[in-house]
Structure formats: structure tokens, C-alpha cells
Amino acid sequence: MTMRLDSWLLEILACPNCGGELRADDAAAELVCTGSCGYAYPVRDDIPVLLVDEARTPAP
């Protein structure tokens, strides 16, 4: 299932943890930080959940 996020929204969103840019990962239904932390934030019903407590941390 493909996430329906407007491109302008992705341009203005930033990682709440480190401020890095976010990229969409359609397969996992997540927004993944391209900055220093690498956190992955879930997208539920096409709404990004940008809460650090909800983020998946990258595998070491």
C-alpha cells in the first residue's frame, strides 16, 4: 500500500529528534530520517506520527 503524502509536505517536514530531512519508505509505511539519528516514524492512515516515542530506532 502506497502512502499518499504530498511532495510539499515532505519538503517542509523535519525529524523532531535531530532536525534531519525525512524520506518516505512506502514499503514500511514510514518516514525515515536521513540525518544523524536515522529514526523511522510511522505513517498511519496517511498521517505522519512524528513523535520520538513512537519512532523506531535504527538497528546497530
Short account of what is shown:
The protein is α+β, with helices and mostly antiparallel strands. The protein has one helix at 7-12; strands spanning 22-25, 30-33, 40-44, 47-48.
Secondary structure: elements and pairs:
Blueprint (H helix, E strand, L loop, with lengths): L6 H6 L9 E4 L4 E4 L6 E5 L2 E2 L12
Antiparallel strand pairs: 1-2, 2-3, 3-4
List the strand order in the largest sheet.
Answer: 1-2-3-4
C-alpha geometry: globular
Helix-strand makeup class = alpha+beta
For the residues shown, what is the average pLDDT? Answer: 94
Query: Which stretches of 5+ consecutive residues score pLDDT under 50?
Result: none
Major beta-sheet overview: 4 strands, antiparallel
Query: How big is the Rg?
Result: 10 Å
Oligomeric state of the chains?
A: single chain
Order of helices and strands: HEEEE
* DSSP helical segment count: 1
Query: How helical, in percent, are the residues?
Result: 10-25%
Q: How many strand segments?
A: 4
Assess the beta-strand content as a share of residues: 25-35%
N-end to C-end Cα span: 28 Å
Any overview of this molecule?
Belongs to the UPF0434 family. InterPro entries: Trm112-like. This is UPF0434 protein ACFQZM_12535. It comes from Actinomadura fibrosa. The protein has one helix at residues 7-12, and strands at residues 22-25, 30-33, 40-44, 47-48. Strands 1-2-3-4 form a four-stranded antiparallel sheet, with no helix packed on it. The chain is globular. It is 10% helix and 25% strand. The protein is built from one helix and four strands; from the N terminus they run H-E-E-E-E. It is an alpha+beta fold and 60 residues long.
